[in-house]
């Protein structure tokens, strides 16, 4: 909010141009050997997220699946933000209770006083210094799997197993390009031609995914992996947001039988549905993207109760957690 109480939002659509995401993130890593100066240390770091953001939602899911809740604390920003980005408006007094800051940008500026890029979530903050360590969301979840193993819960799944890594990486690359980021290339397209191209690429990839998942329960191997987490957060937002708001409207997810069953299977798996907040998702996209939705009106639909309906994917076999176990219920 600005001083006069009016919300000022960033612009997301560049006229006559296709949408290009800036993917140059803060690449500092938290590792077991502390090579970048930030060693794995329980209680030292705070993962800052918003349940609205698909990239942040991945880290929430992986943290829960691996049982890292006690090792890495969680700070939650509200679902809406102004052009200065994410705020801790859900917390008493509008301050994160651990970092004691009103905006995640304060942690960015604590490390980079002239930080010139977007202030994004997820971000991991070094609590003692109050400075951001990284916002490199693809690497964050991989490092949760590989670098924080000492603090995984008993029965934690192998989300990035060594023998499947190359295939997971290949699947993740095309899913990111065509689906995870593809919906944004539709929604933030600045020309008809760029929208048409992104739309065609998105649905061609969704058709490819439907074929891939028709006879196997998970994207790679017979257990949940990093690849499933990355696809799920986009599918969860498809009908509430991307179908209408981003004009990804060839079909709803609920009209694509294989992907709809696959998404419900994951949603009903501990760690996925209980890490998903549809109210935050809808509020964020429809209220923040004012150049796409000038009125800021949030639609009442769709009815989301159908996420709990039977999916039948058990018949394909597979073991969600491999030789591990499900995380304990929340609460």
Automatic annotation (TrEMBL):
Residues 161-295 form the GST C-terminal domain. Pfam families: GST_C_2, GST_N_2. It comes from the Bacteria. Residues 308-331 are annotated as: Disordered. This is Glutathione S-transferase C-terminal domain-containing protein. It comes from Gordonia hydrophobica.
């Amino acid at each position: 909010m600005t001083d006069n109480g009016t919300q000022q939002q960033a612009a997301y659509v560049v006229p006559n141009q296709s949408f290009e995401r800036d993917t140059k993130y803060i690449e500092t890593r938290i590792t077991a050997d502390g090579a970048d100066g930030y060693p794995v240390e329980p209680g030292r770091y705070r993962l800052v997220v918003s349940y609205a953001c698909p990239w942040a939602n991945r880290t929430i899911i992986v943290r829960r699946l691996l049982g890292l809740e006690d090792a890495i604390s969680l700070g939650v920003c509200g679902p809406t933000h102004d052009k200065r980005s994410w705020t801790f408006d859900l917390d008493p007094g509008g301050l994160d209770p651990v970092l004691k800051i009103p905006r995640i940008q304060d942690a960015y500026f604590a490390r980079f006083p002239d930080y010139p890029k977007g202030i994004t979530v997820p971000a991991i903050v070094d609590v003692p210094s109050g400075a951001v360590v990284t916002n490199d969301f693809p690497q964050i979840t991989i490092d949760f799997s590989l670098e924080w193993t000492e603090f995984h819960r008993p029965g934690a799944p192998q989300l990035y197993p060594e023998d499947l890594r190359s295939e997971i990486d290949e699947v993740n690359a095309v899913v990111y390009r065509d689906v995870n980021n593809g919906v944004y290339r539709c929604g933030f397209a600045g020309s008809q031609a760029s929208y048409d191209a992104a739309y065609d690429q998105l649905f061609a990839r969704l058709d490819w995914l439907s074929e891939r998942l028709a006879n196997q329960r998970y994207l790679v191997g017979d257990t949940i992996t990093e690849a499933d987490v990355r696809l799920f957060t986009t599918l969860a937002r498809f009908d509430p947001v991307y179908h209408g708001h981003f004009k990804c409207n060839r079909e709803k997810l609920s009209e694509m039988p294989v992907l709809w069953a696959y998404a419900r299977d994951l949603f009903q798996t501990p760690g996925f549905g209980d890490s998903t907040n549809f109210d935050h998702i809808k509020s964020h996209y429809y209220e923040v993207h004012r150049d796409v939705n000038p009125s800021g009106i949030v639609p009442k639909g769709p009815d989301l109760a159908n996420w709990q309906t039977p999916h039948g994917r058990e018949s394909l076999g597979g073991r969600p957690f491999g030789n591990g176990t499900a995380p304990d219920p929340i609460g």
